[in-house]
Amino acid sequence: MRFKAMALATVVAALAAPVQAEVKVGLITTLSGGGAGLGIDTRDGFMLAIEQAGRDDVEVIVEDDQQKPDVAVQIADKMIQSDKVDVLTGIVWSNLAMAVVPSAVGQGLFYLSTNAAPAQLAGPGCNPNYFSVSYQNDNLHEAAGAYATSAGYKTAFILAPNYPAGKDSLTGFKRFFEGDLAGEVYTQLGQTDYAAEIAQIRASGADTVFFFLPGGMGISFLKQYADSGLEIPVVGPAFSFDQGILQAIGAAALGVKNTSSWSKDIDTPANAAFVEAFSARYDRLPSIYAAQGYDTANLLLSAIDKADVNDDAAFGAALMEADFDSVRGKFSFAPNRHPIQDIYVREVVQEGDVFTNKIVGTAMTDRANEYVDQCKM
Amino acid sequence: MSAILIAEQVLNGLQSGVMLFLMAAGLTLIFGVMGLINLAHGSLYMVGAFAAAAVAAATGSFLLALAAALAAAALAGAVVETVVIRRLYDKDHLDQVLATFALILIFSEGTRWIFGSFPLFLDIPPWLSGPVELPGGILYPAYRLALIGVGLAVALGLWLLISRTRLGVRIRAGENDREMIAALGVDISRLYTVVFALGAGLAGLAGALVGAIQSVQVGMGEPVLILAFVVIVIGGIGSIRGALVGALLVGLTDTLGGIFLPELFKLFTDPSSATTIGAALASMSIYVLMAAILVWKPTGLYGARA
Question: Would you say residue B237 lies in a domain?
Fold first, then answer.
């Protein structure tokens, strides 16, 4: 009896051996509702890299989280339990990431973040299986503060929505801004009318305005700001100046400085090839979300070539090497598995009919993040 | 805090109030005449904004865009009324809420299917862009002044329509006793379609007007819808006059609360916690207002029935 079982096991193992080990990736992102543009770019960037690699040992399952934490958790559970994925990725929003990531990495999966990178997961909540390929959430805001300081601004009026990422944003800006604050305002999340805040800016006497208003909030703010006749220069993180939404803001955004870890004019062969391939494949210019999705997929492919995804230590080490050709040029990981990278200052320009960004300087060089020391792995 | 800043904020409050009125007027009319809770009203607002953005992009004319917004939203309203809403009048409110919620999802995904996932561009016409100087040295955007004007003109027009025309008589009669006016020979189902299309057209107009200074995107109607419900509850369900007063109250409370509450708390605590507490209280302020008014007048300011 025992012999029979052993023989059977041997046969099964022999049958299984020639089939190449397949890596299953679950991509959870926002594909419907108001935030869909971000998720669609993430997915398209990620899938572009997978298609270009042309390999059949990586299977990607894509699901829509509707920008709802509860839906994201359900999808993650389904992907982990019935689809048996090895790696999760794709979440755009920090509140959704906080709902999904700790439990997923707790169950031994790898999570590669294409965007959301809240402070909690960089500091005490860091995990060997969690990698942020985008940035740490504070980075672009810190860079905006550093830029405002180096541009010689003395008093800043700063505003952000009243939710955790908004508070982190203003904290990040203040960390590197050496001038004074002429005002600090928390707006409502999803607010569409900024007339009241613009009147306060007018009365404040600030010489620069920093704002973090992602998505539609930023479109509303910039259009209304331009119409108010105020001339105080505006600085912000890349989120409100993304390729997807710049066309909706139009000329109101021209000349605005914004900070980003990626730009379509970063002068590397990998980036030029990516911008060209993305534009050809999807008939639109890529956004930062698409670039981050693309980098994430390439990082994953590089690690799959080096190690078995079921060997946590080896696969984690392979990811840490970051041995892929990033569209951002130089890219490496800090000990808490968040990027070390340059953060650029871009200016909104018009190229033909299209509004886009061009790099005008570097705000921070080789920036890691504030939370490296708090991470004990 | 200067007098100019306060005056400017009062104008801002008025402007957001009259735009809310355009939404709330249709909502309250539909509820008053047909007894229907229409959650899809925000979708009609979105339809108006998208129609305006599409026509403005194609023709370059803002006035044509406004006309298109009115027409598209009214048409969408009429179609929705005949195809879906008509079956819901004798159902209870839960069925109405479920069906109109389904309409929200259909409108949102349908719009995304047609226009894509990225926000559209709709800008202020050149002849209304930039600020104008008001007496007292207040610099105020011309477009926002125009919004106040349009909103008040629509309010006046609605009042004339309801109080001076045959359609208005029928609408008022329909609010009071729909069986009786049906018995008197009024084609009640056509009246319902007209009222629904009128309400939808107003929502579409508001969407287009506001879309020019905000973001034209899928789901833009839902936040406004919630405020519009607060407005009609404050004003008294079914009352146009209540909708106007309620909208102005909500607009002013929302705008002024967001500015003055943080300033008020700065008198007691340090600036950063004052900002946090003030911002938190400001976002509650309209609901506190609603609760206070309901305690004082349980049917709303001008509400006739319980």
Answer: no
Assess whether pLDDT exceeds 70 at residue A6.
Answer: no
Chain B, 74 to 133: residues with Cβ < 8 Å from chain A are 108-109, 112, 117-121, 123-124, 129-131
Q: What is the pLDDT of residue B137?
A: 82
Instruction: Note whether residue A88 is domain-resident.
Output: yes
What's the confidence (pLDDT) of residue B11? 93
A184 touches chain B (CB under 8 A): yes
Identify whether residues A29 and A152 lie together within a single domain. Answer: no
pLDDT by 10-residue block (mean), chain B, 306 residues: 84 93 92 88 96 94 95 96 90 92 94 86 88 86 94 94 91 84 87 93 95 89 92 90 94 88 82 77 90 92 71
Distance, C-alpha B86 to centroid of its chain: 23
User: What CATH number is associated with residue A254?
Assistant: 3.40.50.2300
Residue A347 β-bridge partners: A257, A358
Q: A363 to chain B, minimum CA–CA distance in Å?
A: 27
Q: How confident is the model at residue A9 (pLDDT cuts 50, 70, 90)?
A: low
**ipTM reported for the complex surpasses 0.85:** no
Contact yes or no for A244 and B118 at CB 8 A:
yes
Tell me what pLDDT residue A37 has: 85
Residue B267 phi/psi, 5-degree rounding, is -70, -25
* A19 band by pLDDT with thresholds 50, 70 and 90: very low
The per-residue pLDDT for range A183-224, each reduced to its tens digit, is 888 888 778 889 889 989 998 999 999 999 987 888 889 999
Which residue of B12, B139, B212 is in closest CB contact with A196?
A: B12
User: A63: pLDDT confidence band, cut at 50, 70 and 90?
Assistant: very high
Please count the structural domains in chain B. 1
Clarify whether residues A363 and A245 are in a common domain: yes
**Amino acid residing at A60:** V
Cβ of B120 within 8 Å of Cβ of A248? The answer is: yes
Query: Which of the residues B18, B215, B253 would you substitute to probe the A interface, choosing the one with the greatest number of A C-beta atoms within 10 Å?
Result: B215
Residue span of the structural domain in which A36 resides: 12-135+267-333
Per-residue pLDDT at B139:
86
- Whether residue B275 is contained in a domain is answered as no
- Contact B253/A at CB under 8 A: no
Tell me the helices (H) and strands (E) count for chain A, helix number first. 13, 13
List, in order, residues 6 or more apart from A283 with CB less than 8 Å away. Answer: none
Query: What are the residues whose beta carbons fall under 8 Å from the beta carbon of B219, sequence distance 6 or more?
Result: A33, A34, B46, B108
CB < 8 Å to B118, chain A: 37, 244-245, 247-248
Burial label, B150 (beta-carbon count in 10 A; 0-12, 13-18, 19+): middle
Question: What are the chain B neighbours of A162 within 8 Å (beta carbons)?
Answer: 276, 279-280, 283
**Helix or strand or coil: residue B115?**
helix
pLDDT score of A106: 93
> Which of B119, B143, B279 is facing A219, going by the closest CB pair?
B119
- Site from A31, A219, A239 to mutate, B interface, most B CB atoms within 10 angstroms: A219
Q: What is the DSSP string of A199-228?
A: HHHHHHT-SEEEE--TTHHHHHHHHHHHHT
Question: Hey, what amino acid is at A196?
Answer: A
Whether the Cβ atoms of residue A319 and residue A299 lie closer than 8 Å to each other: yes
- Structural domain includes residue A103: yes
